[in-house]
Amino acid sequence: MNKAAPKLIDVARMAGVSVATASRALSASTQVGVDTRTRVRQAAQLLGYVAHGAARALAEQRTRTVGAVIPTLNNAIFARSINALQQSLAQSSYALLLASHEYDPVTELELTRRLLERGIDGLVLVGTDHDPALYALLDKFQVPYVLTWALDAQQRHPCIGFDNRAAALEIARHLLDLGHTRFAMISGLTAHNDRARDRIAGVRAALRARNIALDPDDVVERPYSFASGQQAMTELLRRREAPTAVICVNDVHAVGALLACQALGVEVPRQVSVTGFDDMDISEHIPPGLTTMRVPKAEMGRAAADYLLRRLAGRDVAATTELDLEWIVRGSTGPAPRRRA
User: 292-294 and 326-328: which strand pairing?
Assistant: First the structure.
């Protein structure tokens, strides 16, 4: 016959503490000293004790889980921030439940509802562009949440991110200062994506200040993939008046754009300059090196975890945290090519 599963009282006896102390130690309570927590956890490990999640949640009025609903799992830019979020939560004995909505607000609302019904203690979202019904749902359940990858200009919601418009304006100014006047952009689909829209708006503002227009046809929207970026860049380069500067709203498309240039024999940056946004790992290594805006993705994930953990502990925390971006200049940008007489 199988041995009976060890119980909390067995862990407490082995560790030489009360059941209440053992329970607090296993829930990472700061009311228990480090030595006691270590002793209790070692006893639990030796006995093979696994806490009953439902029972502990009922006793603590907490499930010790946090949800994160992100736009997509197909775009690697979210991986590092989610990994940092999960690791930071795990240090406080919280688990992460992850879902993706593929830029569909109806799906995002339904996924959020399911996570709330499962009793999550907090929620992480991406961007500020969400169905009002989602915010109403969060208010109804009284669950702490935080927005990431963007800033709420009206300061209605807690957020950890950066000014996408200002960052894109800086990118455009870099190319303008290099003498470029013929611009195009490659972007992800802008519907339900405030980050992409803000970056396009920033570029338009910078060009407008120099009396340069960016026509609607100069902004090519494609799903996030290297292949989509390559296809979009191929279309731009085959135009009669091809751009000399192509600003990609993300590194995924920018890498695809560089691949298109290689396939067509177009020299970068002598014939065309290309920029990205995010600074993915591949961006440093793909020839000639991608000029891009570096986003502190891991820092953002850790900050999101810290915000929720502080809220759940009843501690004060700033409602808005603006992160600094870093402009990384590599080999993919250079002076505008001279026009032939």
Answer: antiparallel
Locus of tokens 């607090």 = 24
From the options 3.40.50.1000, 3.40.50.2300, 3.10.290.10, 3.40.47.10, give the CATH code of 65-162+296-324: 3.40.50.2300
> Alpha-carbon Rg of the chain, whole angstroms?
25
pLDDT in tens, 86-112: 999 999 999 999 999 999 999 999 999
Say if 65-162+296-324 and 164-295 have the same CATH topology. yes
- Say if residues 6 and 47 touch (Cβ distance below 8 Å): yes
- The total of other beta-carbon atoms located within 10 Å of residue 143's CB is 21
Distances (CA, A) of 258 to 89, 137, 288, 297: 37, 43, 9, 23
Residues 237-266: tens digit of each pLDDT:
999 999 999 999 999 999 999 999 999 999
> What letter would DSSP give residue 239?
S
Distance of CA 295 to the CA centre of its chain: 9
